[in-house]
Amino acid sequence: RLQFVTWNVCDTTPLNVAPLFRAEGPPPDLIAIGLQEAPGNPATAVIFEDTWGNASMKHLSQRGYVKIRTEHMQAILLHVFVKLEHLPHIRWIKTAFTRTGVGGYWGNKGAVTVRMDLYGTSVCITNTHLAAHLEQNEIRIQEFHAITEAQRFPGCKAGTIMEHDYIFWIGDLNFRLDPIDYEAVMNSIADGRFQKLLEFDQLKVAQREGLAFSGFSEGSITFQPTYKFDKGTTIYDTSEKRRKPAWCDRILWRTRPGTEVSIRQHSYTSLSHIKQSDHSPVTSMFSIQLDLNKNQPLVQFEPVRNWMCGYKGVASYSVVMDIPTSGWDWIGLYKVGFCHPKDYRTYVWADSAGFGKGKRGCMVLFEPPYMPDEPGYYLLCYWSTHFDCIIGVSEPFQVCISFLSLRTRNDQ
Question: Can you give the pLDDT at residue 279?
Fold first, then answer.
């Protein structure tokens, strides 16, 4: 199961992210949240996690999720999380971004993408913020094509967005209702005649006419337009501009023609009770078909036993034959509940005996100065430089405080 959330947060900071991720049924295996107009300084965003990313990680890590990648371009962000159990089954995580603002020179508009092979199936997630204003429909259509033509993923079996087995396209697409006047839109919303209004939706028209998003599907829209509200209310724009409400925020999907894949959408709705922005968040849950026998972990750890705080710890593992390894591969020690691959307590370089060829009986040593001084449950992860991701995860194990250390502490 996969859950997608898109929200134009209108330069606001997170108050409570938990409602964004609530869903009926079994918890999702993958969660992607795409934001537009996120706050933050673009100059520091490369170094520091944005406030929305931090809030999402804190909430989701407590529920067993690990952030596998973030891609951002100014105020457009995409965070992707997976359940820990799926981490070693993911390969070839790649990212891309495309600027479309100011003729392609500015990143206030455009797209950020995260793609991966999930159990051997290629999945692409693209978060976009297209040109604003009703009269810019042709520009939005041009931006769609510019994004699909520009983004490339070298070394992946799916080298472009449209070559992926599953594509999920989310974001503030900014398509408006036209030609229809303000009063007619408001009356239709009041009467709940959404399907009548959607006849004037620029995105639906572009799809029907084959101008953009050809081959993409969208669930039935049974929720009210998601833009533009007076902040903090469910009242549509009362400013002098009186912008017509529209379904700017969308979640679409596409499967690659000729492939034997299946997808089911379980829900598609807006979260209109969340009022801090002038947009409502939109969320959707899917199930997709995967072959769980593919992309098995490439590194297998032996069970870890008898680790104690302040004492050296030994980890043994084996590497699958014929996979590329490197002197830059490393093994991280993580507290159970860690947030992302760089959230390790410490790390050591991988055993050189495994470099270049598969080998059983590889071993690494964690020296006492780098061992945790806090007892608890930990796990090991093998980071592959070649694959640029984690390719092996140990079972959780306990690090205990030694009797000698406990006695010393009691004496103090």
Answer: 98
DSSP structural state of residue 391: E
Q: What is the mean pLDDT of the chain?
A: 93
pTM as predicted = 0.93
Contacts by 197-203, CB closer than 8 A, 24 or more apart = 197/225, 198/247, 201/175, 201/177, 201/246, 201/247, 202/137, 202/140, 202/175, 202/176, 202/177, 202/178, 203/173, 203/175, 203/247, 203/250
Residue 337: give the domain boundaries. 299-408
Q: What is the pLDDT of residues 107-154, one digit of tens each?
A: 899 999 999 999 999 999 999 999 999 999 999 999 999 999 999 999
Cα angle: 138, vertex 139, 142; to 5 degrees: 90
Reference 72, options 17, 20, 111; nearest CA is 111
| Spatial distance between the Cα atoms of 217 and 205, rounded to a whole number of angstroms | 13
Single residue among 255, 288, 321 that ends a domain in this structure: 288
| Residue entry with tokens 């239709």 | 188
Examine residue 220 and state whether it is found in any structural domain, yes or no.
Answer: yes
DSSP letter string, 297-320: -SEEEPPP--EETTS-EEEEEEE-
Q: Are residues 255 and 312 in the same domain?
A: no
Label residue 192 by pLDDT band (50, 70, 90): very high
Q: Residue 373: count other Cβ atoms within 10 Å of its Cβ.
A: 10
